[in-house]
Write a structure and sequence with these properties.
Blueprint: H1 2-21, E1 39-51, E2 57-62, H2 68-80, E3 89-94, E4 100-106, E5 112-120, E6 126-135, E7 141-151, E8 157-166, E9 169-182, E10 188-195, E11 203-209, E12 215-224, E13 229-240, E14 246-253, E15 257-267, E16 270-279, E17 283-293, E18 298-305, E19 310-319, E20 322-337, E21 343-359, E22 365-371, E23 377-387, E24 393-400, E25 403-414
Antiparallel strand pairs: 1-2, 1-3, 1-25, 3-4, 4-5, 5-6, 6-7, 7-8, 8-9, 9-10, 10-11, 11-12, 12-13, 13-14, 14-15, 15-16, 16-17, 17-18, 18-19, 19-20, 20-21, 21-22, 22-23, 23-24, 24-25
Length: about 425
């Protein structure tokens, strides 16, 4: 316990030193967690919601990591491949320029289990990140990931070093390094990745540019075989129109050949990005067409299978590049066996909405509903917020299937102007 307290003190001290050293005038940027105002810190605590027979909602105990509802929510998030539910207690600290300098996560009993510190140089670039995962044990098991960044005078990353080690046994750390090399014009020409040593790279990426400074080729090779040698892994080719806009990107893998071809077209209403995916022998396996309409701030994305059948489509509307609403629709077809001994879709198909999101005018989610491919509800979530005068939420109630399940309270500290 003493070691954990000591680590917390060290983390706070490092964060304060970072703030003190960052005295050079830099452009402020909004903090990610609390995007409005000059935020200094944010603290969130999530409680169980208690609802009486009259419909009055109050907060109960702090949500525990072992609570059944939380475990089921985390499991659902993993299946949907979305960020996992937030821990019960979190703390963020920002410097005067909007940079996150500290992010701590706690168990319901207040014990720290993950602490992340960002340290910046005088230009506002991250020069060090320390990410500590603390597991309950005696003595405490503290696993640390430490990143060190080095830049050139223009702010381009030259070296990124990473160590992964136990606090009690740093000598047994896992080490990796990424080194970037630039030409006289400041263009990134080569990236080398190392593991365990800084002599034998495990992968190298080369970039080639045209006379207008646009990248036209990337060639990645990886070390394989015995004896080891650098062999082709992935190659990308890029094409541009007369205005310098990317209109085609092709991706190739060894043996398989062309695996993806992304074509972009532009017109007065916006742009369309069509991505073709291929199996070996240039067999088309699927197509995604993404249309972005400038006048209505709407995006539509259609997914087709190898036979050209529309299987899923998404319609989203945003405001100032913030999502306002999004609907995801799935189409289920009858399967038939083809002459190639593969199953193919056969029309007609049934269309249902499988995911629906609505955000409010503060760009926070108020509806997040999921449905199965046959249209039956899987999870229906809704949220109610209380906002402060700056426009940041200070309380959030989560409802699952119209039942209040969680209350999150947020304290926000602002810099004095």
């Amino acid at each position: 316990m003493k070691y954990i307290k000591y680590l917390t003190i060290v983390i706070v001290a490092l964060a304060m030193l970072s703030f003190i050293s960052n005295r050079k005038e830099r452009k402020m940027k909004p903090a990610d967690k609390a995007p409005w105002g000059h935020v200094q810190w944010v603290k969130e605590i999530t409680y169980h919601a208690v609802e009486d027979s009259s419909g009055n909602i109050s907060k109960g105990d702090i949500v525990s990591d072992t609570d059944y509802d939380r475990m089921e929510e985390i499991k659902s998030d993993m299946q949907r491949k979305i960020p996992s539910s937030e821990p019960p207690i979190q703390l963020w600290i920002y410097d005067g320029y909007g940079n996150e300098i500290q992010n701590d996560k706690f168990h319901a009993n207040g014990m720290l289990y993950n602490g992340k510190v960002h340290i910046y140089d005088e230009n506002g670039d991250v020069k060090e990140v320390i990410d500590s995962a603390i597991r309950n044990a005696m003595p405490p098991n503290i696993q640390i990931q430490q990143y060190i960044y080095k830049y050139d005078i223009s702010g381009k990353i030259l070296v990124q070093n990473k160590w992964d080690y136990n606090a009690l046994n740093r000598d047994n750390s896992k080490f990796s390094r990424e080194m970037n090399f630039y030409d006289s014009l400041g263009k990134l020409r080569e990236t080398m990745n190392f593991e365990r040593d800084t002599i034998n790279p495990v992968s190298i990426i080369w970039k080639t540019y045209n006379e207008k400074g646009k990248v036209v080729e990337t060639d990645e090779r990886k070390r394989e075989g015995n004896p080891p040698q650098m062999v082709p892994f992935e190659k990308n080719d890029f094409w541009y129109d007369s205005k310098g806009r990317l209109y085609d990107k092709a991706t190739y893998h060894p043996q398989a050949g062309l695996v993806k071809d992304e074509k972009t077209t532009y017109d007065s209403s916006g742009k369309t990005i069509t991505t073709y995916s291929y199996a070996p022998g240039r067999v088309l396996t699927g197509t995604v067409v993404k249309r972005i309409f400038k006048s209505t701030n709407t995006t539509q994305e259609d997914t087709y299978d190898g036979d050209g059948f529309l299987t899923e489509y998404t319609i989203a509307h945003d405001s100032a590049k913030h999502l306002m609403d999004k609907g995801v629709f799935h189409i289920t077809y009858r399967k038939v066996m083809g002459a190639d001994r593969r199953y193919h879709n056969s029309a007609p198909g049934d269309t249902v909405m499988v995911h629906h999101i609505i955000n409010d005018n503060h760009f926070n989610t108020v509806v997040d509903d999921n449905f199965s491919n046959n249209g039956k509800p899987v999870s229906q979530k809704s949220y109610q917020y209380t906002y402060d005068d700056t426009g940041n939420w200070t309380a959030k109630i989560q409802f699952n299937n119209d039942r209040a399940v969680k209350i999150t309270e947020r304290e926000i500290g602002y810099f004095k102007e």
